Amino acid sequence: MVQGCAITSKVCLLAVGVVFWAAAAGLCYISAWVFSTYKDYSHIATATMTLVPASIILAVGCLMFLLGLVSCVAACKDSKCLLAVLFSLLLIVLTFEVTAGALGYVYREDVKTTIENGLQKAVDVYNGTYLEQMDYVQKELKCCGVYNATDWMSSRSEFEAEHHNMAPKSCCKTDINCTGSLNPIDRHLNTVGCYSHLEDKFLSNLGYIAGIAITFAVIQILAIICTCILFCRSKEVGYETLGGPVSGLRV
Predict the structure, then answer these.
(1) What is the pLDDT of residues 100-159, one digit of tens each?
(2) What integer pLDDT is reported at residue 80 of this predicted model?
(3) CATH number at residue 118
(4) Percent of the chain beyond pLDDT 90?
(5) Domain that includes residue 88, residue range
(6) Fewest C-beta in 10 Å: which of 44, 163, 169, 237?
(7) In a domain, 66, yes or no
(8) Is residue 127 located within the same domain as residue 41?
């Protein structure tokens, strides 16, 4: 019974190692994707919402690869030292995941504030990089302004001074017959603001991340249990007597 439990734990630990390797590859890919698309939101979303999480994801991906390697080697070698290292690493990662989840929940309102402030600044400045990124957001999400298209009427940008009561072309549903007029509002304009769209986009992504984190937490708890079983099982070492029962030497 004990032997069967140990074998099952080894198989589970090997499977967890393979899952960790797959997760490491996926996390590194996601991190690279975030870095490559950062230019589209760098001013609107700020680095704290893009590059910092991407860096954390990359670091976790590298750690996952290490955990997968240690898991497989520890399961095959049945080494108490490696099992202890694996247990410690799993516990540290699990603690960080729980802490990150708690902080994400506590500071979730800051995401909304950051998006709102970033969009408002883009509308007020609307030149250079802000112009490119605001146009990208408005075209990609089919929205206009912060809360609605009329936000462009109160913009302090050079665009509003030169094009009074008009929205940028990126607000148009189609370039055909779209004047961008806000007084009266052109029927060819997207009138819904970008704030609600971006908020939903970021919060939905946070929801996906939370779901993935919970899944990995369950896998890590399983790996911790298997590690404990193998660690305890490794203490049962068989001894053979050398030189007969009188010598008392055992190996």
Answers:
(1) 777 767 777 777 788 888 899 999 989 887 888 899 889 988 999 999 999 999 998 888
(2) 80
(3) 1.10.1450.10
(4) 13
(5) 2-107+208-235
(6) 237
(7) yes
(8) no
- Verify that 142 and 176 share a domain, yes or no: yes
Average pLDDT of the residues of the chain: 78
Q: How many CA atoms lie within 13 A of 219 on its CB side?
A: 22
224 closest CA partner among 99, 94, 97: 94
The 10 Å CB-count burial string (b at 16+, else e) for 157-191 is bebbeebeebbbebbbeeeeebebebeebbebbbb
Q: What is the pLDDT of residue 142?
A: 92
Of 116, 127, 112, the closest CA to residue 151 belongs to: 116
Write out the two tokens for 245: 């029962």
95 and 61 within one domain: yes
